[in-house]
Specification:
This protein is α+β, with helices and mostly antiparallel strands. The protein contains 12 helices and 11 strands.
């Protein structure tokens, strides 16, 4: 801690020039007396640090002295990529190092750059979860973070939709997707040749860090793995198709909702347009039940042509809605 502060002391003077003990104390969040002691320690170590008393006094580096040290500790360097994501850093148990790393980076910037960096921080904020969702804070996330960073093998008790089981994993990385945390790890008890798998961290019931460590392959790219995994999952989930008729407004609304809710960024290819402007197109679906819930959002702006099961589900919903609101419809006709 003290060594890191001494380096920050030097960096501040290197960037800003002369600073008073009070200014240094405020930047480094210590007392003025601590600054006096640190200055003596740096001078004893051979750093060309000069100090003058009085109203215009202060500390400065003489002789054009510069250091290439960053002043970052191991934990701060590990948390560096989270410097602009305070909530994620806190969830991972790296809030302190991330804050400290950010402060040191800002301190190392020239004065005009510091002002611009501060303005950027004030003008942009990332809120990762979607609307009506809260960010997860899984119980074992901080412990998993340390095991991932230390490349330490773990044993977990995991609850899937099928059953609870005990697994031994080499934890390769963590992913935050839509406010939910996932662990990417390789099971070790399944024999060689088994690739990474994905686990929801909120479904990990217990975790134990083991003595064994592992070496993650240099060729493994967490981002590439995750993107491929998402594409494969989407393909596996949507093996069926449905033939639909859309009103022009319904087609536009479908494209927007499919992108936001289903991750389908390619609009369906239109195969026909009738005289009234309605469009016929096929869409991928996971199941008739899943598609039924999604298409209800389009109300009367879409008609299902196939499959029959999906058409019947929407027909039943239309009949039930008509029955529920029939009295209101008759009342409005009478008053008209």
């Amino acid at each position: 801690m003290r060594a890191s502060r001494l380096i920050s002391f030097i960096l501040l003077l290197q960037v800003r020039g002369r600073m008073t003990a009070e200014q240094l104390a405020e930047e480094l969040e210590v007392s003025v007396r601590t600054i006096y002691r640190d200055a003596l320690s740096l001078q004893a170590a051979g750093v060309p640090l000069t100090g003058d008393a009085g109203h215009d006094g202060g500390y400065e580096l003489s002789g054009g002295y510069r250091t290439t040290l960053t002043g970052l500790t191991s934990d701060e360097a590990s948390a560096l990529f989270l410097a602009g994501l305070p909530e994620s850093a806190e969830a991972l148990g790296l809030s302190g190092p991330a804050t400290s790393a950010r402060r040191k980076l800002v301190a190392a910037l020239p004065a005009d750059h510091q002002h611009r960096a501060a303005r950027m921080a004030q003008c942009f904020y990332l809120d990762a979860p979607g609307w009506y969702q809260e960010a997860e804070r899984p119980k074992h996330l901080a412990a998993l973070t340390q095991c991932v960073l230390e490349q330490r093998r773990i044993r977990i008790r995991y609850s899937s939709w099928e059953r609870q089981s005990t697994k031994t994993l080499d934890p390769y990385g963590l992913v935050l997707k839509g406010g939910r945390w996932y662990l990417v790890g390789v099971p070790t008890q399944s024999g060689r040749g088994r690739g990474p798998s994905t686990y929801r961290i909120d479904q990990i019931l217990a975790i134990k860090a083991l003595e064994q460590t592992f070496t993650k392959p240099e060729s493994f790219d967490l981002g590439a793995y995750w993107n491929q995994n998402v594409r494969s999952f989407t393909t596996r989930q949507r093996t069926g198709t449905a033939l639909l008729r859309f009103s022009p407004a319904g087609y536009d609304r479908y494209v927007r909702l499919a992108s936001q809710q289903l991750g389908l960024n390619e609009p369906p290819i239109v195969s026909a347009v009738d005289r009234s402007g309605w469009l016929t197109a096929s869409i991928p679906i996971e199941s008739a039940t899943h598609a039924h819930g999604f298409l209800l959002q389009l109300a009367a702006e879409v008609e299902v042509l196939q499959p029959t099961e999906l058409r019947l589900l929407l027909t039943r919903s239309a009949v039930e809605l008509n029955h529920l609101y029939a009295s209101d419809v008759e009342s409005s006709r009478g008053s008209a």
